[in-house]
Design goal:
mainly alpha, High-Potential Iron-Sulfur Protein, Chain A, 2 strands, about 5% strand, binds iron/sulfur cluster
Length: about 100
């Protein structure tokens, strides 16, 4: 009985620590890289003002990830997962040609 209790006292905290590590790993998705082929195709820039306006004339300075419908965070979050980029983090001040005004 004592050894079982000792075993549980050792195993349960270890399992808890693993769960926390697992949760952290899942809570930190990668950032969208401007060099990612999809980002290049959509003209994504982490700083919207650096968008190639000749290629993406629909860009407007008032548009940014923070006010895009696909930005899965609060308007004040520095970065949040983007649905277009499979949940990778888009920068609040970023922009890509899939921008849609937040409803
Ligand atoms: Fe930013 Fe919206 Fe483009 Fe995602 S879809 S990168 S949130 S502008």
């Amino acid at each position: 009985m004592t050894s079982r209790r000792t075993f549980l006292l050792k195993v349960i905290p270890a399992a808890g620590a693993l769960a926390i590590l697992g949760g952290k790993a899942m809570a930190a998705p990668a950032t969208v890289a401007e060099t990612d082929p999809q980002a290049v195709a959509l003209g994504y820039k982490a700083v919207g003002s650096k968008v190639d306006k000749a290629k993406f004339p629909k860009y407007a300075a008032t548009q940014n990830c923070g006010n895009c419908q696909l930005f899965q965070g609060k308007a004040t979050d520095a970065a949040a997962p983007c649905a277009i980029f499979g949940g990778k983090l888009a920068a609040n001040k970023g922009w890509c040609s899939a921008w849609v005004k937040k409803a």
